Amino acid sequence: MSGLIEVELKAKVSDVDHVRAELERLASGIDETYHDTYYDLPDETLTARDQELRVRTVTNDSGSRSLLTFKTAPVETASGSRPEHETEMTDPAVADTVLKALGAVELISFRKLCRNHRFEAEGREFLATLVEVPEIEGTYLEVETLAPTDDVEAGLGTIRTVLAKLGISDGDLTTETYTGAVAAARQRGVG
C-alpha cells in the first residue's frame, strides 16, 4: 500500500438492523471472523510511538488467510487514519515464532465477528464492516477507503457522506480502540 493511507472512521451503532439493511442494499456482505494478535517490544516502544504490529487470521466459509500488518503513527489524529503495511502469509504460527525470536511480546489477542461489505460510492472504493467483539458491549461500524497522503481530508469527507446515508452521525463516531476496550474489559473481570 505504498503511498496510501487507510482512511477510516468508526462509529458505535445504535440501530443495527437499519444499518445492516442499508449496507446490504449497497453490497451483499460476507461474514468473517478475525483473530487478532498484537505485539510490541518488552519496553512497549511501538505503543509509545502509536504504532501497531498485528497478526490477523481471517476465517470465512471459503477458508482462512493470515496477514502480518504494521501500522505507523496516525497522520490524521482525530480519526486515527494511518499508513498501513500489510502482507499475506501462509502460517501465522511461523510469524509468531519469528516475532518472538526478534524480541517481540504478545500484548493482546482477541476475536472480532465481522460482516464486510465492499462497494463504490463518491468515486471511491469502500469497505464497511459491522463489528462485534464478544468481550465488549455493542456493535460498531468501520468504514474505510484508501487515499494518497495529500487526500486524507477528502477521503474522510466521503466516509462521512457514506455514514450519513447509513444513518450514522458525527455524534456516533468513536476513536476507542478494540485493543483498549478488550484490555479494560479483562481488567474489570480480574477484580
Automatic annotation (TrEMBL):
It comes from the Bacteria. InterPro entries: Adenylyl_cyclase_CyaB, CYTH-like_dom_sf, CYTH_domain. Coiled coil: none annotated. Residues 4-184 form the CYTH domain. Pfam families: CYTH (PF01928). This is Adenylyl cyclase. It comes from Nocardioides luteus.
